[in-house]
Amino acid sequence: MTYCVPGVRVQARFDRTQNSACQTFADCRSGVCANTPNGAFCQQDCSNDSHCGGAEACMGTLLDEQQQLAVRVCGGLGGTVPNGTICDPNGNNNCRAGLCDNTTNRCQPLCCKSGDCPQGLRCNPTRVVGNQIWGLCGAADIQLGPAGIGDACGADSECRSGWCLGGVCSDLCCTDSDCGRGRCRPYNLGTEQEPALVNACQ
Asked: Exposure winner among 20, 52, 166, 189, fewest CB in 10 A?
């Protein structure tokens, strides 16, 4: 889950741009200071490829294994295998986005919403490490219906996204503009004791 907060709330400046040298996350505008073979540099955060300007891919990378912290960044920190290539979800893969989708057994792109995905796929909430969940394009586990975001529903199968939330078709999202008449808000897919938050249209 991602959202905007004032730098003063976390007592940090966040003033260095992409590819600037950094020592901690608080140095970077994106909040991501990642190690590379040439040292630590600020990386542009993202949720899908469109956030990277078209020249780079949005890739997942493990930032801190001990704290189970992974981030999504633009650039060359992920793999080189193109989306659509067969992969093993349970093995080592070199997928472009850093993840192998277990519903298609293929490398798939990261996504904000189902509209970001290739035809026939939807944006599935996917656990990456710990309780972190990202959107990853993949197949639906049910037959999808025609209802769009904000339309009334009684079951997941009535919605194009495959997600009926509180009697209304929902979807994963990054901003309010992904949600039509609704708002993009945090939603807990986990429990109160072990929350697993995503951004969802509500």
From this structure: 166
